[in-house]
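Fold this complex.
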Amino acid sequence: MKPNEGRSRVVIEELKPEIDGGRHAAKRIAGDRMRITAAIYTDGHDHVAARLMYRPASEKVWRYAEFRELGNDVWEADFLADSIGAWTYTVQAWVDHFGTWVHDLHKRIDAQEKPAAAPATVFDLPGGAEQNEAINPADENTVAIQDLPGGMTPATRRFMTSNTPQSDVALAFRTGAILLDQASARAREGDARTLKGTASSLRYLAERNSPYYDFPLNEDAIALCLQYPDLNFATVYERELPLWVDRERARFSSWYEFFPRSAGFVAGEHGTLRDAAARLPEVAAMGFNVVYFPPIHPIGTAFRKGKNNSVVAEPGDVGSPWAIGNSDGGHKAILRELGTFADFAALMQAAQANNIEVALDVAFQCAPEHPWVRDHPDWFKIRPDGTIQYAENPPKKYQDIYPINFESNDWRALWQELYSVFAFWIDKGVRIFRVDNPHTKAIPFWEWCIAEVRKTHPEVIFLAEAFTRPHVMYGLAKIGYTQSYTYFSWRTEKKELTDYITEITTTPVADFFRPNLWPNTPDILPGFLQTELRTAFAQRVVLAATLGASYGVYGPAFELCDHLPAKPGSEEYLDSEKYQLRIWNRDDPNSLAPLLTALNRIRNTYAALQTNETLRFHAVDNDKLIAYSKSDGDHTVLTIVNLDPGAPQAGWTELDLLALGVPFTGAYEVEDLLTGAKYPWNGSHNYVALDPEKSVAHILLLRRATLSESLAGESTED
Amino acid sequence: MKPNEGRSRVVIEELKPEIDGGRHAAKRIAGDRMRITAAIYTDGHDHVAARLMYRPASEKVWRYAEFRELGNDVWEADFLADSIGAWTYTVQAWVDHFGTWVHDLHKRIDAQEKPAAAPATVFDLPGGAEQNEAINPADENTVAIQDLPGGMTPATRRFMTSNTPQSDVALAFRTGAILLDQASARAREGDARTLKGTASSLRYLAERNSPYYDFPLNEDAIALCLQYPDLNFATVYERELPLWVDRERARFSSWYEFFPRSAGFVAGEHGTLRDAAARLPEVAAMGFNVVYFPPIHPIGTAFRKGKNNSVVAEPGDVGSPWAIGNSDGGHKAILRELGTFADFAALMQAAQANNIEVALDVAFQCAPEHPWVRDHPDWFKIRPDGTIQYAENPPKKYQDIYPINFESNDWRALWQELYSVFAFWIDKGVRIFRVDNPHTKAIPFWEWCIAEVRKTHPEVIFLAEAFTRPHVMYGLAKIGYTQSYTYFSWRTEKKELTDYITEITTTPVADFFRPNLWPNTPDILPGFLQTELRTAFAQRVVLAATLGASYGVYGPAFELCDHLPAKPGSEEYLDSEKYQLRIWNRDDPNSLAPLLTALNRIRNTYAALQTNETLRFHAVDNDKLIAYSKSDGDHTVLTIVNLDPGAPQAGWTELDLLALGVPFTGAYEVEDLLTGAKYPWNGSHNYVALDPEKSVAHILLLRRATLSESLAGESTED
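Structure:
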């Protein structure tokens, strides 16, 4: 079977980014320049030309961007992704016959045998006009023809006996005239006239049949013709690839988690949404831009968990917020003790007033009294004895929770109802959702649900709490999750931090996966933080806030260095807020709030820390010191952290000066953004000593102004 | 838009090999086990199961192979590609509810509280049969129930008061019974009965409501149920991927090129196909399995090139065989001086008798008198003066050659005629084609043409002479070329050899690209061989024959170390056979024929050298010594070459013992297959000295028998 068009000679391959053969969308942020590379080639020595075709998915008409050749048949193009939502892109390429002709003509012209000097003379221009030829001062053997029509160069040529047979060059002029005529047939009216004029001039020159010609066309004439390529045999890449463009907060976010029920101001009293609203100014003052609340819905009573996850609740025990639903309602209701929808609206207003966004927790599981259980028992697994299957990981039983059965015959209605939970809270103003254990719900559901939400609300951000296997974590990111929790919580050694952070911030993973680094969560008190060393907490949050453009803390517990596990070997907190009210002494003089405030101030001030794209690790000759930098147009931030919370560590850096934009030799100044101290540094090797009692890290600013000065006369990357 | 089936919860990703999103076929050899890996996962903790679906493209019915999990959600399967031609494969995966149930049941059983000892007793079996329970000697607290129906284990359980509510285990038995019943509904009749029986037994056990159970099913019962999975919600990978299976010669081939017209036995007389046939026994005796002839067609007379590529031919000059076509015919005719089709048939018979295959050269370009020029001027480019465009690379002109215009409006007829050239020679018995400059012909044409040939002749092999840019070389391999020339001809240093050979023999490139290494060709006398040092030639052919499962030489010129270039800086031969007859003194005592013979003997004897899959480079502490090994089931061949043709070189090896299958400590013996010398070696570090005057290389055999002995008690890779 021959193809419909066998004359499409250009091959387009290796389009990047392309995730799983175009199955999934690459991710970018509005305002990013989206860079695409591709291998583009054809047979023989013909030139190829290519353009990127791209458009917001909502538009029909393609936009175009030019490709530049990088060498070895690899090309690149970019475009400004100037609005959030779905985009699509592909590549069109064709044999550039005119470009090939220009290239070959240059070689033909150069190869002419230069004739002996001859006197200047006069000849007729096509329009019948007559001009004096002026001697070209640069070469008195050539004669300039000024102001030829159609963008021709001040061509120079020689008049010899004209009885010689038509030269290769003259023949090439006639070929060029045909190409120009063809382009003119495709051109807009004014351009068409110009192209035709140029063609006529070429024919005129060819007819004069001179033994020597200079190159006849100027850059404008060439550029004009290249604007009207023959696309009849153009190749279009076989797939249109998807791109998803998010708003800025998808890339740069600082999360603070707290339990509204522990937000109260009176010991022993159940906190409310009003209390939570009252806490927002201090969270905002610490510089966070997202505040995240565990579920605020009615909590089941059957099999309610008691304090410290006891299987029997005492009277007055408040239960786990993740055991959602009772006779007051389910995922679209608010726990009575927390307040009303009016209170929630007030909370949202307070957030807006404090310039902080509210993230709600979506945990798709039901307490036994959840309305869904009553109305849709077929959305759950029914056991042979007629009871509904509770959550379990045999032999462990979680009888306070019913997992949803995504193989329900009624899956369409189920999906619709789950989607409606998001729609409900979006209607109440929420634009960020932290999704609980998304990896235990069907992945095709998430793909549909996230797309469905984004149809009307492309600004919504989904954070996947998926501390699960790498392929599953990445899979959830591919099908639409905006951000993801990571294994950072357990990576504490230099090598494993370097390897892991490199993996998740480097393409191709970085094209679809956006890490959000958490030193702790209500579910995870890592072994490294089960220590009385406040410096361990400080170290971990410096790492999170400077390695990750997005990071978060389970706030009060973190600030106050809550470090006692429920039992030895457990990562659960003792007296966990998950099962009881807690009172946090926010005035504790040992609180890490000042450090969090400083970190967020630095993050908010220096755009370098608001992206992972420029992250580079630098060597230090001490395994307890880790160094890495991020840069933007104006500044480089170089962070060096003492990974040993218990002892001072010192060493010599071996900086990648090119990545830093630092001169290869000579002095420069670094300023510690945590302390304000300034240090005179020199070249790649600098001595660093960090006593955790004083400071767990240097966060060093290298100003471009400083660099430019010291770079005078030096080579730099940029 | 919800999907048609939202309950297909398994994700299948990263299927390998997959070339350009399935656009191109992976390549294997008949008899290979085709290994496929994929990432396969689902939500939650449910188990998944998967099977590879594969079939020859000519068959409708899928065959299946089981996947094995390698860990971290990566799975592998393989199948025997037992016939040449097109195959297709994809993956099907599903949630394995029965497997999950078995896994969970084990955990439930293990978690039971072990009751106190109780007396053995007797109970009724489902069929009403009654058996004595025997005390299990291993644990006198358990009681064995022998010979339960349906593949149940000799289950042991305990009888206590039976008033406790139904236990989790009993409930799980009832769930299992449902799964078994469902499987029985999908099963063949006999199996269905067995599965139903097992289900009944589980229900029977559940009804006894014992407080303690042992695991009730044996491996057979489990395996039987797993044979009948519920595929209603199975996921099938979104693409069916192509595989092309070639015959053995596609991977392992030793090519010898010579010009029939120089095969004559009388100086100055034009050689014939009969002469070429007479030369075959000596080529076969050297151990080559492919003999390749430059074009044997009529040669143009207009603008015929003279000796040493002179633009003016003298009377009697024979012209270039690549300037195809004159009034005697074109690509389907034989040059009159070479003989007749009867002579060609005799040549083919001689080849068969000598167990060597004939490869013909297909060069799609025409001399001005080629019949296509007369009959189809529209298959060529017409210049504005009405003449046909000859080949040129301005300012160079090749007026003896007209290139084909693949943008001809008549491209369909053109393609058909070009295809018919292959069909014509296939009809004459040819099964291997070396294609001249395929990168100057339209790539879509090749893709169609090769596929068209293979529809009826899947055994045909195409070698691409594409010394062009890497993407183009790889592109031609992707669209179907069986083998390709490479840049080996110019890679002479250890690092560049190591890097380049690694690139072209390692996946993903090795999945579609099969290198054929040539130290020289009639077009390429590399600078490295422009030397009087015979050792340079020896070194290069040892490298080619041991690095490449396929290699070739432009024979007589190579054997006789023809090393004079047409002019300084040129890679053309002086007095090149391309433009004149040559007489080769095949009896020259300095001929490299004995070395070629030895190399081919080794290649033909040791299968390790017949594939590139196992190639590993080993370190030597001298940059002039390169070492690498290949292995098969029985032998490892370790080659060490002195890259300096002018001086002895010595050094210490640092062998990758795991790759060699050599013991980490202790002695072993290596045998030089070139000299027969044996050396006692020990561990990784061994001293090697190569004096090129004596030998440019060691080709060392490590016998598995030897290894096994010395490996006794050692760990090895296999």
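The CA atoms of residues 625 and 700 of chain A lie 14 Å apart.
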